[in-house]
Amino acid sequence: MIIDVIWARGHGNVRATHRNTIEVTKDNYITERGDCIIACCADKAASDLDNSFKKLVTSGYSLVLMIIVAGSSMDIVVGLGLSGLRLTDERRIIVRRSGHMDDATIMLLANKAAKDLDRDLINKARDSEPIEVILIGSELKQDE
Question: What does the alpha-carbon distance between residue 105 and residue 133 come to, in Å, rounded to a whole number?
C-alpha cells in the first residue's frame, strides 16, 4: 500500500456539479465553468505524485482511494489504477467515472464524481477552507 498527500484549498467558485469527474488543480483560481474542480492551489499535480504511487497506479490493476478532508467533513472516492495511465500533467489531477485516460487522470471507473461528494465538504471548499487529499494505492492481485 502506498500513500501520497496533496494539500490544496477551496475557492468561492467551487460548484462540484460535474457528473463524471473530480479535479484538483494547482491553478490559483477557479472559474464558474470549472464544475468538476473541488480545490485549487494544490501543492501537487499528477506529475508531482510520489514515484512509488505513480508506478503502482500505472502498472496493471490497482485499487485507488481518494480521501478528501476539509475541516470536520470528509468523503471517500474509490476507483482503479490501470496500465496506460500516464500521470504526467503538471497542473491537475483528475478522477474519472469513465475509462477515459489523459495525462491528468489518476483514477478510472470511480464510484463518485464531483456532484456525488458530501455537500458539507463542498460548502467548506466553497468557503476556501484548506483541503487535504489523501491518495492510497494498493495492488490488486489477479488470479494466475
Answer: 15
